[in-house]
Amino acid sequence: MEDERVAVVTGGGRGMGRAIVRAYAERGTRVIAASRTAAELEETAAGSELIAPFVCDAAEPSEVEALFEFARAEHGRVDVLVCCQGIYQGGVEAFDLPLEQWDRTMSVNLRGIWLCAQAAGRLMRDNGRGGRMVFISSMNGLASQTHAVDYDVSKAAVNGLARALAVEFAREKITVNAIAPGWIRTEMAAEELVELEGEGLVMNPLGEVGTPAQIALATLWLTDPGNGFVTGTVISVDGGQTAMLPLPWDPSATVGPGAPTP
Description:
about 15% strand, alpha/beta
């Protein structure tokens, strides 16, 4: 049965964004998949008449305006917004972090979400049907790692933006939430995962690396039409990593997965 809603998903060209786009299409939702890379979008949309690719740099106001004008012209509304775009440029100590890197991270990871949320929010308000928004944040928005201050701060700000807009948009029946993924097997995390797994390190209490499909499932739940009472929250999908104290622990311990060593 076809879902009559319309969703816009940014960062839809690969990784978690692609999984989210396809998850909506499989449920019959019409999806506009946005990304900066046309070839990746074409791969995302392949085989589905419900996915419309749209090349867009979410950090550029004119391109965001064009994206939502396309949504309005094609469908007359937007019911769901999922912002999944993001960049990680780690590896630089805070003392040496170039201003250009700080600005680029904030532009993509934060400003891009704000621009999309404002544009989608206006369409949702004007349509009078309410809506659902989900921002893909990170466990780095809840706790920080070294040599990633720009990324850490951008993701913490995304969580704050979700809370602020949840309050601001509530009167229009628009819910706004964030998802904080842990280690997910994506192109962006691939290099670090090879290194960490090569050292035999365990990522979280479950001892697993997550999949894009698991993030898509959480997104579907938060944006379900009947799920109108969850807003302003940050949902961790991280195998329990942010729930665990950062104590030394031995993944080979016999008392439960990842039991701390005395």
